[in-house]
Amino acid sequence: MVRQAAKETGKQVRLNLAGGTTEVDRGVLDRMAPAFEHLLRNAVVHGIEPTVLREATGKAPVGTIDLRLRQVGNEVQIEVRDDGAGLDLVRIAERARRTGLLTAEARPTEAELAGMIFRSGFTTSEEVTELAGRGVGMDVVRAEVTSLGGRIDTASATGRGTAFQLVLPLTTAVTQVVVLNCDDLIVAVPSNLVERVSRTPVAEVEAAYRDGVMRVGEDTLPFFWMGGLLEHGGRGALEGKTATIVVARSASQRVALHVGQVLGNQEVVVKNLGPQLARLPALSGLSMLPDGQTVLIYNPVALAAIYGAQARDRMLQAEAVAEETAASSSRDMALPLATLVMVVDDSLTVRRVTQRLLQREGYRVQLAKDGLEALELLGSEKPAVVLSDIEMPRMDGFDLLRNLRADARLRDLPVVMITSRIAQRHHDLAMTLGANDYLGKPYDEQALLSLVRGFVDAAHGVGAKGLTESGSDARNH
Questions:
Q1: Which of 10, 31, 176, 341 is the most buried (most CB within 10 A)?
Q2: Residues 375, 26: Cα–Cα separation, whole Å
Q3: CA angle, 451 as apex, 445 and 454 as ends, to 5°?
Q4: CA gap 370, 299 in Å, rounded
Q5: How far apart are the C-alpha atoms of 308 and 224, rounded to whole Å?
Q6: What is the per-residue pLDDT across 243-275, written as a single tens digit (0 to 9) for each?
Q7: Residue 181 CB contacts under 8 Å (≥ 6 apart), including other chains
Q8: Which of 371, 353, 352, 364 lies closest to 410 in space, CA to CA?
Q9: How far is it, in rounded angstroms, from Cα 285 to Cα 173?
Q10: Per the omega criterion (within 30 degrees of 0), is the bond before 281 cis?
Q11: Cα–Cα distance, 154 to 165 (Å, whole number)
């Protein structure tokens, strides 16, 4: 394309490509290909001067266009730079005044003038050709970059050239990861951090849980349950004769990790974390597995360095609980079950976050993705309180409330609605149908815990003191 444009304009141009081995998501590449072509065509038509003019100004007769790609963290940067005349800001200003984009009295800055080239329909060409003057292109380039969540920056120096840098934050290079299953938690680890995977006798793993270290070859390594580093339980299940151990290495540090299962090595496109997750330590990216499931990519060595102490405490607590459970079983003593709380929400994230919040307070948690599933589960055990969303498939929260209040066994079951519907009419309808309280999303954790504690105390006959106050506080929040 550059060769053709140079031939049609009678110019001599050399195209240099750097970072051509950088791999990006095919979908993004396909969407951005027209933008790349337009930037390169502009560099030939508008940027590089005719050979005679270049020689007259002391430049080499052959113009140069550099196309550079590189990966920086979770971004891919693409730069198109030419050594031409640079943006003609005087001509841009004249054209902008003629087309009404600037008033006669306006005194725009150089940056504002450079930004004019991104205005829809703007061109400095006096005549329309196949290569220039059509008034489309740069606005489309910026629109494509912006639609992908990226940005485009411009730099120009008169007589020395122009550079456009496209930053695409939604995707980085394709990378290899090892996908791990830790009970029902699926995570990924960069393949270059995985030193070895082995099947280890359960007796050795049990000893590692007690000691906090594991012997691997000639070395003694810190030992952790991978899920424990992510606050997913104190220890993993040990079934059969062997367990899966992953040894991870980063620089000179090594750790031994117990995982439920290694699901395999996969090539994935690492997606941008976004501002909410970018600051989380040891989280290096996220991706999408072939089955559509989102998976977070962690550095387990960094996780162990930051959260190792807490994970070890959870391991010790889990060991103590396991020993106490075994001792109780041997004495035929049945421990009372913890209070059950039901969470009904179609969002997996909301269910998991609420579950962990309640489990930290010592509650058992039962999850349902909609009202119909909740009713099925309520047939086996009655919880102390139900926390329900409103907008759900199959059966929403309002219909769930109607069914509960029509059932003699469940009509007194406390129900707290937790929803993004914060309009007064939704609140009033829920209360009319028999809801005990109503919280908006995102909810205040302490307010929710206070409500649950009040309902549980009332169910156990402790008394509902403070229940009304906590409900009022939650509603005010």
A1: 341
A2: 45
A3: 140
A4: 35
A5: 8
A6: 999 999 886 789 999 999 999 898 877 776 666
A7: 259, 260, 261, 262, 263
A8: 371
A9: 11
A10: no
A11: 7
Q: What is the helix, strand, coil percentage profile of the chain, to 5?
A: 40, 30, 35
| 213 in Cβ contact with 198 (< 8 Å) | no
Is 180:187 a contact under the CB 8 Å cutoff?
yes
Which tokens sit at 274? Answer: 């976004």
364-368 vs 385-388, strand pairing mode: unpaired
Q: How far apart are CA 417 and CA 397, in angstroms?
A: 8
**DSSP assignment, residue 183?**
T
Tokens at 128, concatenated: 């329309």
Tens-digit pLDDT profile for residues 113-140: 877 877 766 665 554 444 443 334 677 7
CA distance 378 to 411: 12
| Residues belonging to the chain | 477
DSSP string, 306-326: HHHHHHHHHHHHHHHHHHHHH
* Residues paired with 155 in a beta bridge: 163
CA distance 189 to 303: 11
Sign of the CA dihedral with 324 first, then 326, 329, and 335 last? positive
Q: What is the pLDDT of residue 248?
A: 93
Q: Which two tokens stand for residue 126?
A: 């006096």
Closest CA to 233 of 193, 183, 199: 183
Residues whose CB is less than 8 angstroms from the CB of residue 3 and which lie 6 or more positions away in sequence, other chains included: 13
Residues paired with residue 264 on neighbouring β-strands, in sequence order: 179
Residue 348: how many other CB atoms lie within 10 Å: 11
Cα-Cα-Cα-Cα torsion 366, 371, 376, 377, nearest 10 degrees, comes to 10
- What pLDDT is attached to residue 458? 83
Which residues of the chain are modeled with pLDDT < 70? 27, 73-74, 120-137, 146-150, 169-174, 251, 272-275, 278, 319, 322-337, 461-477
DSSP-derived secondary structure for 336-356: PPPPEEEEE-S-HHHHHHHHH
| pLDDT tens profile 96-110 | 888 778 887 878 887
CA trace torsion 417, 421, 425, 431 (10° rounding): 0
